[in-house]
């Protein structure tokens, strides 16, 4: 780009991300925007924001979109500053976070990195130990603490931007299909030696060579709970101003209400692996058609470029 070889480019389609930093998913889009190159997917600001799950939840709360009560343990925090109890008491949800179980994970990771069988904690001792483990494994990372949501989990695949965005399909993450033996095995990363109760997907279940696939594709017309999930996902997608294609993960709490877990505006698109791509196929959209729809969505955001392509 510095040699101005990009002058002939109409639209950049990049699924690349940087290697380092909490803004790594925004680095390539940031360069494209600096050189005024139209590109597919959300802008750099949105990509950086959505990777930071703590800040994402702050925005969701501002819009009144339900997300589990949470607190962020800053990367700089040590017990020399204050106790963990004192830190939590200063947060908006400190009182709610005094009830267990809770769930802990790095605030700025994806693909279940940093999620181990011990991520669900049932008492304060486990919470302190879990945070210490994550600080050791992810130095310089903030840690997200949130109320554990014990209900069903869904992934909603979305295409489009703003009012034009729509749901492609919804996938239910069916934990009953997971093998307890595989949950306890440490394949991709060796997490702490706790056992998972099968109520969530840790890094080994998701990324190991023997990874399970507990998804079940759903039809929202048959299930009011799924309709509620899809409506909530679109609210979150639009609130964060996400573009073109992505996923929103949602889980029900003990109160039988759906809550937004996280938003992924840079989703995997591998036809043989990625949930979004396989959901599209289940809904009768081939991988080629899916990519075409993503490009069409991007062109809607660049009217001059769209007019050029239409001719």
From TrEMBL:
Pfam families: Dala_Dala_lig_C. It is found in: Cytoplasm. The keyword Ligase applies. Keywords: ATP-binding, Cell shape, Cytoplasm, Ligase, Nucleotide-binding, Peptidoglycan synthesis. Residues 57-296 form the ATP-grasp domain. One of its GO terms (biological process) is regulation of cell shape. One of its GO terms (molecular function) is ATP binding. GO terms for cellular component: cytoplasm. Gene3D superfamilies: 3.40.50.20, ATP-grasp fold, A domain, ATP-grasp fold, B domain. Residues 193-207 have a biased composition (Polar residues). The keyword Nucleotidyltransferase does not apply. Belongs to the D-alanine--D-alanine ligase family. This is ATP-grasp domain-containing protein. It comes from Aspergillus oryzae (strain 3.042) (Yellow koji mold).
């Amino acid at each position: 780009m510095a040699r101005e070889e990009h002058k002939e480019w109409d639209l950049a389609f990049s699924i690349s991300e940087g290697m380092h930093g909490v803004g790594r998913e925004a680095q390539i889009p940031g360069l494209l925007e600096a050189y005024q190159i139209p590109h597919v997917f959300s802008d750099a600001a949105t990509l950086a924001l959505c990777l930071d799950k703590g800040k994402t939840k702050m925005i969701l709360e501002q819009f009144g979109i339900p997300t589990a009560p949470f607190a962020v343990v800053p990367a700089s925090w040590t017990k020399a500053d204050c106790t963990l109890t004192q830190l939590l008491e200063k947060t908006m949800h400190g009182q709610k976070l005094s009830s267990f179980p809770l769930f802990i994970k790095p605030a700025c990771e994806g693909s279940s990195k940093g999620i181990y069988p011990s991520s669900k904690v049932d008492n304060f001792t486990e919470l302190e130990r879990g945070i210490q483990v994550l600080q050791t494994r992810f130095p310089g990372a903030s840690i997200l603490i949130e109320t554990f949501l014990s209900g069903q989990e869904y992934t909603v695949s979305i295409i489009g931007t703003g009012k034009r965005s729509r749901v492609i399909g919804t996938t239910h993450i069916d934990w009953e299909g997971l093998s307890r033996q595989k949950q306890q095995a440490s394949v991709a990363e060796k997490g702490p030696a706790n056992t998972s109760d099968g109520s969530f997907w840790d890094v080994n279940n998701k990324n190991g060579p023997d990874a399970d696939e507990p998804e079940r594709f759903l039809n929202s017309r048959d299930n009011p709970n799924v309709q509620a999930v899809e409506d909530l996902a679109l609210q979150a997608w639009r609130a964060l101003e996400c573009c073109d294609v992505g996923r929103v993960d949602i889980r029900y709490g003990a109160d039988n209400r759906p809550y937004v877990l996280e938003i992924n505006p840079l989703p995997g698109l591998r036809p043989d692996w990625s949930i979004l791509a396989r959901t599209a196929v289940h809904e009768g959209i081939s991988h080629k058609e899916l990519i075409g729809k993503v490009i069409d969505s991007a062109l809607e955001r660049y009217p001059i470029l769209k007019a050029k392509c239409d001719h």
